[in-house]
Design a protein that fits this description.
Residues 23-288 form the NADH:quinone oxidoreductase/Mrp antiporter transmembrane domain. Residues 1-16 form the signal peptide. The chain crosses the membrane at residues 56-76, 96-115, 152-171, 178-196, 202-219, 240-261, 281-304, 324-342. It holds the Pfam family Proton_antipo_M. This protein is mainly alpha-helical and 346 residues long. The chain folds into two domains: 1-149; 152-305 and 315-346, no CATH class. Helices cover 71% and strands 0% of the residues. It has helices at 3-22, 26-44, 50-81, 92-106, 114-120, 124-131, 136-144, 151-168, 175-192, 198-222, 227-233, 238-252, 260-272, 276-301, 323-334. Helix 10 (198-222) packs antiparallel against helix 13 and helix 11 (227-233) crosses helix 14 (276-301).
Amino acid sequence: MSPLTKLTLTLSLALGTTITITSNHWVTAWAGLEINTLAIIPLISKSHHPRAIEAATKYFLIQATASALVLFSSTTNAWSSGQWDITQLTNPPSCLLLTTAIAIKLGLTPFHFWFPEVLQGSSLPTALLLSTAMKLPPTAILLLTSHSLNPTLLFTMAMMSIAFGGWMGLNQTQTRKILAFSSISHLGWMTIIITYNPKLTLLAFYLYTLMTASIFLSMSSTNTLKLSTLMTSWTKTPMLNTALMLTLLSLAGLPPLTGFLPKWLIIQELTKQEMATTATIISMLSLLGLFFYLRLAYCSTIILPPNSSNKMKQWSTKKPTNTLISTLTLLSLLLLPLSPMIPTTT
């Protein structure tokens, strides 16, 4: 793919995201979603591998279905209320349809089936875009309409996402699939709090994006696609793999790392809303995810795979320091002390 094509597609992604998150009209928001979808498909299929073509086809069909539901729900709402404003979602069937459409776009359970397969067929940089940037426009629509959405449906999908995201990631050996189920689990945490404190959802999304970007870029620099590759990559880049291990533990939500902050604040907010039982359940369910994060961290720094004594060792080589990865890793690890600066709401 030529640099000009990559630049055009990247600018289209930025344009589509900007249109969606800044629009007040349903049609412009839908147009932004469509621009994003059309811009990411060539990036998914750029390798021309059958798996990549399959992933691009699945992504197109799923996103087209979800976009049609968004347009249908907004049209139904405009028919009943005479309003095309995003914040004026008053028709209950339209609310239900929109919640379903956004859940499909985000990959929330039970509409998660496409997400791990698409990530597995994409390159690591494209998988990073699918896990972070492509989640922002649907999340923005959820935030704008959070006061109108069905809280019971959102709560159910959030609990299922946290449970299934952790459970289905346990037996995976492909790093992209593990991070896909990690994304599903984190989206569950964001969704469960959105009707009570939307700003907290946004904070959780930003920190998740930060940590996930650091992990994907680290794995991309060592071309790590499987756990077996992760086991041997530390001999070539020991410092990078040590930072990767700490970032994985941060994504798992272990204190005193950055990833502990959103989970701590979400549990605190649920307790304030007299939902201590829910907070306890999702805390226990997050232990499932902790297991595969620990397995990734263990593979990245501690052990070597079985090998014969006459196998040539992989020696470390001097590589230039990647400033972007270094900055993202530091932010992914050290932002927890800034938590007192976050304004509290009662």
